[in-house]
Amino acid sequence: MEKDQRQTIYDLxxxxxxxxxxxxxxxxxxxxxxxxxxxxxxxxxSAVREEGKSTVASHLALTVARFRGKKSLIVDADLRxxxxxxxxxxxxxxxxxxxxxxEIDPLDAVKDTxxxxxxxxxxxxxxxxxxxxxxxxIMNDIFEKIKFYYDIVIVDSAPIVPVSDxxxxxxxxxxVILVLLAGRTPRHVSLRARNILLDANANLLGVVxxxxxxxxxxxxxxxxxxxxxxx
Length: 231
Ligand SMILES: Nc1ncnc2c1ncn2[C@@H]1O[C@H](COP(=O)(O)OP(=O)(O)OP(=O)(O)O)[C@@H](O)[C@H]1O
Ligand SMILES: [Mg+2]
What we know:
The protein has 231 residues and is an alpha/beta fold. The chain is built from eight helices and eight strands.
């Protein structure tokens, strides 16, 4: 996947591309980890900043919406460094912040995309220290409601080592996907992320290895997103 600011995610998404294939594989893996109880809501996080969370969450959402025909929703829960409004080219407000603040109903924060069954809840107004917003019952209510109305919910979040938001969100989703940037994030930092999630009783489904800097061996293909069981 080449980075090109002029193109939107919709232009870039080629059904035959390696990333689309990898995302289909990822979705199939995470959904069927327990076949009696298929997973419908996923949190995407990483240990630290800029490991590729928003990229993975967005492509996964596109894949799910395009290939499975499900009513899909992607939520920008990274109120510190919001990105989904740019990626999907939707208004940034009102969004999750206004829902958490009790100003609006979550269904009123939903934005359309050119893909009929893919909707976005953007981050909303900027807030300097949002952690407390994720602590109250209102977050549970918001997620209960959106999980009722949408078949698949994907949540993009802040990194888990520096801030507590993603750990709090992990309790309202069926499973967590940890993105790991190959060649940069030190092993002990990735392990810390994993331990924070396991200590919070999060359902850690697996790790997506983002080979953005092409550090993995040739058989990983270039800029490949791999999946591995983590437990
Ligand atoms: N595999 C990849 N190939 C090329 N570019 C990539 C890849 N993964 C991520 N990027 C680019 O790296 C940058 C950071 O990615 P992204 O925004 O997805 O990370 P993030 O973990 O969400 O960051 P933040 O912590 O700021 O939320 C973006 O410009 C994105 O387009
Ligand atoms: Mg991001």
